Input
Amino acid sequence: MTTHFKLRAYGKINLGLDVLRKREDGYHEVKMIMQTVGLFDQIDLFKSGEPGIRIETNLPYLPVNENNLVYQAARLLMEEFQIKDGLNIRLRKLIPVAAGMAGGSSDAAAVLVGLNKMFRLGLSEEELMNRGVKLGADVPYCIMRGTVLSEGIGEKLTPLPPVPQCQVLLAKPAISVSTKFVYENLHIDQFSSEEHPDVDGMVHAIEKGDLYGIADRLGNVLEKVTVKKYPVIEEIKDYMRRAGAIGTLMSGSGPTVFGLFVNPKAAADAYEELRYGSRRDLARQVYLTNIYNPKR
Output
């Protein structure tokens, strides 16, 4: 049995995010297109002879107990399958925290996948996803990864053809956004039909491999709330457009903004300006990565 697994937990962006209605149970019905990007957290799993789950991380403010999703993911499988061995988890975070990129969910997903292999549990991807949803709505997607249409409350996932490759510039301003606040202040009943993103049109553009058609249809209804409260998000979008992005959008409930670039030099120049240059006031964390499409 393998005693060490090295894993990558990839972040995601939302190419389209529409909220259709608020359900009677309090959940919101959504229609989203999720896309994995090349920015990832690094996770090492070590089998230990000492019982218990132990976590170490490069960020001192992250919990290393049951309040961390990776701990919860490990405990879920270890309790179900009565695994008596101990587990040491080394987590190196690169995906911005609380940024609308599902970093925590992706870490949990990676731990589920890693433990399934380490202890030869024999669970299929679907079985892992069914367990992952107990940890969070984004965890099943983070197990599947790639280009995916997400519906319902996020639990209905339909794989789509891969989005064409391009550079993705990510910028997270020095603010924190409460997802709860965003949804509580989102009044879908006041939206006109034009204010909802064309998710169906984007699906067609993805099926045709039309990157410009995808970029033209980027849309996120949550921007209506988040941008109003934090105008710096729109400032970052404006800068990316002027720097050559073919499309920009806030991911999830924010505050991370991404820009899609087909010109590598323009993407690199924009990264330098946001990271080190005259516009470094706009964002605290800046990354230049690409679309990540795992092999199905």
